[in-house]
Amino acid sequence: MISFWDALLLFVSLFVSLFVSLFVSLFVSATSGRRPVSVLTDFLHDLLHDLLHDLLHDLPYSLLHCLNRMRWSFQIAKITGIQIRLHLTFLLLLAWVGFGGGVESGWRTALTGIAVVLLVFSCVLLHELGHAWAARRYGIRTPDITLLPIGGIARLERIPERPSEEMVVALAGPLVSAILAFLFGVASGFTLPPLDGEIQEWSQLCSKLFTINSGLLLFNLLPVFPMDGGRFLRALLALRFDYRRSTRIAATIGQGLAVVLGMAGLWLSAPLLLFIAVFLFLSAGSEASQVDLREASRGLKVADVMVTKFGLLPSTAQLADAADLLLRASQHSFPLTDENGRLVGLLTRNSLISGLNQAGPLGAALDYANTGLPGLLPSHHVSHACSLMQQFDTSVLPVLDVHGMLVGLFTAENLGELMVMEHRPGGAAFVRKEGDG
Ligand SMILES: [Zn+2]
After folding, report:
1. Which of 5, 151, 330, 335 lies at a 20 to 30 A Cα distance from 404?
2. How far is the CA of 37 from the centre of ligand 1 (A)?
3. Which CATH number applies to 302-432?
4. Cα–ligand 1 centroid distance for 232 (angstroms)
């Protein structure tokens, strides 16, 4: 049962979180020159839109990916060429821990609470760097690592497909956690931290970090995607079966385990456990469908899937023109071209909505368009297009001919339709007709 004081603390923490997000909005608006209200409404819009859209509409995106996609993270450091980013919600966690500790037993507890959170995140960062450095051995770059309140996420340029490489990359993170657990264990004499959570001396801090790193190690070794254990299991299965089948089997095992975990959460009435179970269940399914997509599109060219009928906008267009096209032709991305017909930028539906929010219908479309996207050739493989999409974190890429003229749009939506075709009776034949030839 939640006691009166717990409820009061929760209420006050929520209030403080809201206050901190207002403060952050003011800060962002001061540094970017945008109105604070529009920063805050953008944030709430992004949060609700991404959560609802991704969780209910396209399950292939996991919660972690969706939090990460909201761009509400900023770079705090660069280690061996890898951007280390902190998600803004992480600051909320710090405020919550600090405030919670402060209300309960004074500023010393608050400060140790914050210090423990920062130390735990340094351990998570080292774990993620373990994956990144192992991936580098196989020539796979890691553009960034983002720290979220629910852990870290290292965005690898691509997933190693050779089983032995995936095993090494998957185990490198847990290996770092195991070393840290061992070192803190030695420093604390392998004792458990005090039950009341009060930390008074160094050995207690070390024993706390010993238990947390051991927990991180065990949790990550669970054979469930996207945990490291799930990736290791898939690589192990891939030694015997093909990649797609291995992923299916590993995902099914993972989802079974997530269901058991969820039932335990219900039985123990532990909401956090239930939340983790739901997250793991969705992520396992998402990994399986991503691999399905990759395998289904193997052998297909960009020209086979690109959209060729779409409206163009001049580079001088206003946001209202794009909105008009969205309503009339239900087009979701809008190429902007100069007077010679060359592509200068791509406006997506999301950036159109945030542009309308900030600048109104008379705003210049080019100000909100993405101008840094690489162009695809019609002869490129779909798998290449997919990895570029992931790398540039976009749902649409322009397709250009050899003279640099726009000939098509490669969209995530069309890829989704490809999957639907494949699952229809007789659909597989359609999709594979070029792949087997
Ligand atoms: Zn890991």
Report:
1. 330
2. 37
3. 3.10.580.10
4. 11
